[in-house]
Amino acid sequence: MSTTTRHLRTALQLAEQGIPVLPLREGKGPMGNCRACRKNVCGGRPNMKTPGPCGCAAPCHAWAAATTDPAILTSPAWGPAWRQAAAVAYHPGGAGVTVVDLDNVDAIVWARHNLPTTRTVPSTRGEHWIYLGTMTSPNAVRPGVDIKSLMSYARWLGPGTGPMAPLSDTVRALAVREPAAVRPVCRPLTAAAPVGGGECRHRSPVFLERGIAMAEQRITGAPDGIHRAVYRTFLAVLSAHGRCGCLTEAHIKRLFAAAQGKGESLRHCEDAWSNAAAALGM
Predict the structure, then answer these.
(1) Where are the beta strands (DSSP E) in 58-198?
(2) Which of 106, 109, 259, 273 is the S-S candidate for 191 at Cβ 3.0 to 4.6 Å?
């Protein structure tokens, strides 16, 4: 079986499962726009959520070319692209999933300590962790970690192993930038432990203790970008532990102490905690 036939067969099998697919050229990049669409002078395809009536028959416009229609995949207009294809890609957001792309061993170790276990697919240098649900697709959310979901594409590397976990607040928090506009400027802040809404959902205090210890390590181990690291760590802690009432003032003091040990001011710690709680609706 030729490489072209193999890639096209894989694409058709995925399309039959409702997974939008497209060919990738050498270097894992999408096919370039056709001459009529070069530099997006056509305005883009409608499913790119950009203006323009482009109805180009070729696989233009990167992730937006992904389709589940076998008639399009096997059309003469797509023939040259499949002959050039080095791999098959898919649009995770179109398939209703989010891929956390872990690009190296350090990123994998970090994920195992900080993200919910989910379906895993080995990649060339690391792993893809796949969650059920969609979100925005920022790159470089931390060293060696990219998010691929809406308006993005990922290389198809196989179905993976393990059950697929729902997309959690912890994963969504990776894409959140600290909103400077909500920083209070007129009054001092104090950080209080959230009030729980019922019985603690954690089976053991060991789970909370491990979470706080890992949060301290994440802050103290941040090589740079400490402001963002502190905010994201607070966001992750609150998303995991903030709604059940198990956090105490002692836990918050430990997190603040770790941040201040990296040079953060008390005021910034209070602001970051307040902003993270506000972002989660607490």
Answers:
(1) 87-90, 97-102, 119-122, 127-132, 145-148, 154-155, 165-166
(2) 273
